[in-house]
Write a structure and sequence with these properties.
four-stranded parallel β-sheet; Fe-only Hydrogenase (Larger Subunit), Chain L, domain 3
Length: about 475
């Protein structure tokens, strides 16, 4: 679901530069000059009206990287260095301040909400199927016979778009709204998009969908780095999807984590072993009690979907905790004085981590990659490191589609266990889940639900995408 684009390159290059300044102890001193260095006086703007707008956007993106949202802005005249000082001085982080996902309104281009428009490909044909099929008489013609749409009448049904023989009528979505499967994003009176935390499931689809990079997940990178610098014991808990991310030997990837400053590393696949055991036992109990089916619970975006949008589905959701939950509990038991950092492929884990007392911080893979780049760490040159805890191949396979279902089936020992796999929380699949919940009928006993196509290995905050991610993952998991 995640993918690479220029917005992402710029965003994480920005974070990488800020990490480099932090490492040199120059963040407060140098950060105010960053917008001007990126957009000097004679440089042409890239997609915005002027370099002054570009500089303002850089400022607010930098604020987001420092862990602030627009809600934290008291005075718009405050400099970046002031925010850097506040970041260095803060001790506690309230992840819910401004919500996990938020819009930096300076970066939002206020996309015009006109879904259908007639392009210059219109030939003014005699058939006029667009006119005859419009249910609201929203199509009219100019003196040259070219079609136009009266947007005061148009209801965006798309019939004109479907029947035009020249494909002259184009569909223009508002990308973030189009990507959101639960209609959690809408415009305010100024045309700026806002995310409703009461509806948002933190799936992160909007993160990559916005072509202007206006949507951010709350960043805790510097809060972790500051604690490392202060000598605190910080333990990295790395999601199984890491096997698909960096294209380097895993012992050197873990070596890079140690070079960043992590005291120890625990693979979250170790916690997945407990999830497998508990989920398998729970499924057997539910079947014996006569419950028609049970769904998995390790994807927090799906759990939020059920709680916020399909309440009748909640009773079918497994009560078993996620691999992150059990890994964090183990980490706190092993290192009572440590700070735990879950490293994940998605933003939804930031919401889950905020609600788990044993999870102190959450980084994404993209953030980790930016930190490694900012610290000028060559992964292949690091001292190799292997975590002490081990896990089965089934536990590592939690990161891909069918992985959870297969692990539970193998643990139960029923080869004929019927299941349903849903990999992508799109509108079609959400409607399917609503149908299962309403009727209480499902073609399988266990429904595996993951927010992202392909599973966690292609999450919205993953570094590697598509077939490349799958190939990397399969190659690494064979070593387990």
């Amino acid at each position: 679901m995640g993918y690479n684009n220029n917005v992402m390159f710029v965003r994480y290059k920005l974070l990488s530069n800020m990490v480099a300044m932090w490492k040199r102890g120059e963040l407060v001193e140098k950060i105010d000059s960053m917008p001007y260095e990126m957009y000097p006086r004679n440089q042409k703007p890239k997609g915005r009206c002027c370099i002054h707008k570009e500089r303002a956007v850089v400022k607010y993106k930098s604020m987001a990287m420092l862990g602030f949202t627009m809600n934290d802005e008291v005075n718009e005249m405050d400099s970046l260095s002031m925010y850097a000082k506040r970041m260095l001085e803060r001790k506690d982080v309230d992840l819910q301040n401004g919500a996990v996902l938020h819009v930096m309104d300076e970066a939002c281009s206020s996309c015009v909400k006109i879904n259908y428009e007639v392009s210059n490909l219109c030939r003014g044909c005699v058939a006029r199927p667009c006119y005859t099929n419009c249910p609201k008489d929203a199509i009219y013609y100019d003196k040259e016979g070219k079609a136009h749409i009266d947007h005061d009448k148009c209801i965006s049904c798309g019939k004109c778009h479907q029947v035009c023989p020249y494909h002259a009528i184009i569909y223009m979505p508002v990308p973030c709204e189009e990507a959101c499967p639960v209609k959690a994003i809408s415009k305010d009176e100024y045309g700026v998009e806002h995310i409703d935390p009461e509806k948002c499931i933190y799936c992160g689809k909007c993160l990559n969908a916005c072509p202007f990079g206006a949507i951010f997940d709350k960043c805790e990178v510097f809060d972790v780095l500051n604690r490392m610098r202060d000598g605190e014991k910080v333990v990295a808990m790395v999601a199984p999807a890491v096997l698909a991310q960096f294209g380097k030997p895993m012992e050197h990837v873990y070596g890079a984590l140690r070079a960043v400053g992590f005291s120890d590393i625990i693979e979250v696949a170790y916690g997945a072993e407990e999830t497998i055991r508990r989920e398998a036992e729970e499924l057997k109990e539910k079947i014996e009690e006569g419950q028609p089916f049970m769904t998995t619970s390790c994807c927090p975006a799906y759990v939020n979907l059920a709680r916020k949008h399909i309440p009748e589905l909640v009773k079918y959701v497994s009560s078993t905790g996620s691999p992150m939950h059990y890994t964090a509990a183990y980490a706190k038991e092993k290192f009572p004085d440590c700070r735990t950092v879950f490293i994940a492929p998605c933003a939804s884990k930031k919401a889950e981590g905020a609600a788990d007392a044993n999870v102190d911080f959450v980084w994404t893979f993209r953030e980790l990659d930016a930190v490694i780049q900012g610290m000028r760490i060559d992964i292949e040159s690091t001292m190799p490191y292997t975590p002490a805890e081990t896990a089965s191949r089934d536990a590592h396979n939690f990161a891909k589609t069918t992985g959870v279902f297969t692990a539970v089936k193998n643990h139960i020992g029923e080869e004929n266990l019927e299941g349903v796999v849903i990999a992508d929380l799109n509108k079609k699949n959400i409607a399917m889940l609503k149908g299962y919940a309403k009727t209480g009928k499902c073609p399988g006993k266990l429904i595996e639900v993951m927010s992202c196509p392909g599973g966690c290995i292609t999450g919205p905050c993953a570094c590697s995408q598509g077939g490349e991610a799958s190939r990397r993952f399969e190659a690494e998991v064979k070593k387990k």
